[in-house]
Amino acid sequence: MGGHDSETGHHNGMGYAFGWMHDSVKTKELSGVVITDTTFIYTIYYLDTDSDSLPDYYLNFGPPWYEPESGAERPVDGIMVQVKGGEMAMHDIPMLVVYELNGETWRDSGNFGMHFGGGWIDNNMTEGRYFHSPFDSLDGIYIRPGWGGGMGQRHEHDGGMMSDSIFCQILEVLPQSIPDEENMDILAGYEIGMFNPDGNNNMWMDGMNGGHMTMRSDVDFSLHYSDIQLEGEQINESTIEVKYWDDYNNTWVTVTNAVVDQTNNIVTFTSDEVSNFVILSGQHSVTALKTQNRNITEGFVLEQNYPNPFNPVTVITYQLPQDSEVKLTVYNALGQQVAVLVNGKMNGGIHKVEFNAKSLPSGTYYYKLQTGNRSSVNKMVLIK
User: What is the separation of C-alpha 186 from the centre of its chain, rounded to a whole number of angstroms?
Assistant: First the structure.
């Protein structure tokens, strides 16, 4: 979605923040024949608008797990469609971010605004500005006036100075994309990008990410987590804390003024330090383990999928003590629903469900079994 390099989430790479090179999105209405390419992990969609059997546009329908509320479905190869969307320049052919498909709403373009990819701050602004991640408006940073004034520093060890204007961006990323995460129980991870007008990210040091900036005014942070993330990682909500990556000492630093709102699942804090990486971490929940043991004793069992890790098919087995209304759902590591495997009344006893993740990327997933007032969550790993 931008023109900047994106190689890896680790601090020895370039990160995932893509900058600001999509500012000139223009709405277009097109008709043509759909061309699909299934040679990759995801199906790639194109549109042939001049009937020469060659792609003229990429069609961006969002992540593979996205399903529009309208009930519209992704098109199949070879059919004629009417598409309305936002055009973005790419290296070879343009991309159309789909708003409408055959007259049905795919994604409300009115919701894009700043959060489609961040926005600008400048030295002369008189009001604060809030920027949030593309898929969750509650994950964001609020930057107040007076943040720079040409005096704020980036990388204090080299005395670097900030630009008069900066493009700000925050993304929620997979926990395994966070540097030095191996020894922590991470609930959620975030990458923050701060781009100069020339496209360089202030969070990069010598071409690598992992840096941080000191602002002249405080920045307000809001980080949102989901219940499925808590259940899947079995984190005790009362132990949640915020940490940011300190590139000076190559270590994680705990934020001492963070406030955890357990009712709304939001963590807030204020700091003049803005780090490339921020995480929510915590300790394992003893209550979750006790609940799981009680469920097993009462005949409600969600077993570990087999095989695990898997590629791309695995089997999930569960047991019900009596006939019940059942829902078995799969979520990704960000807490977003990616599949519903069972949704209806099932007989008491043992059941097996096959899950095929051929359209999903490698990573950690959670599967949740719900029936009545009982629920259970397990974690599984897809490796391709």
Answer: 14
Closest CA to 166 of 87, 95, 219, 243: 219
Contacts of 183 (CB under 8 A, 6+ apart): none
CA angle 43, 45, 47 (to 5 degrees): 165
Number of other residues whose CB lies within 10 A of the CB of residue 299: 12
Tokens 């980036």 correspond to what residue? 154
316-348 pLDDT, tens digit per residue, is: 999 999 999 999 999 988 888 899 999 999 999
**In the chain, where the domains are located:** 26-111, 114-281, 298-382
pLDDT at 197: 83
Residue 279 burial class via C-beta count within 10 angstroms: exposed 0-12, middle 13-18, buried 19 and up:
buried
Average pLDDT over residues 116-129: 85
Look up residue 172 and give its two tokens.
């929620």
The pLDDT score that the predictor gives to residue 150 is 43
In 49-175, the DSSP E strands lie at: 57-60, 80-88, 95-101, 104-105, 119-122, 129-133, 136-143, 153-154, 160-161, 165-173
Q: Is 160 exposed, middle or buried (0-12, 13-18, 19+ CB in 10 A)?
A: middle
Alpha helices by DSSP H, the chain: 227-233, 286-297
Residue 302 confidence (pLDDT): 93
Q: Inform me whether the pLDDT recorded for 207 exceeds 80.
A: no
- Asked if 191 and 131 touch (Cβ cutoff 8 Å), the reply is no
* CATH topology (fold) of 298-382: Immunoglobulin-like (2.60.40)
**Torsion of Cα atoms, 43 then 44 then 49 then 50, to 10°:** -100
268 CB contacts (<8 Å, ≥6 apart)?
220, 221, 222, 223, 258, 259, 261
Return the CATH class of domain 114-281: mainly beta
Q: Specify the DSSP class assigned to residue 110.
A: G
- Give CATH for domain 26-111: 2.40.50
Please enumerate in sequence order all residues whose Cβ is within 8 A of that of 82, keeping only pairs 6 or more positions apart, or say none. 29, 30, 31, 100, 101, 102, 103
What pLDDT digit, counting tens, does each position of 4-34 carry?
A: 444 443 344 567 787 766 556 788 999 999 9
Which strand ranges, in their side-by-side order, compose the sheet holding 349-356?
Answer: 301-302, 313-320, 349-356
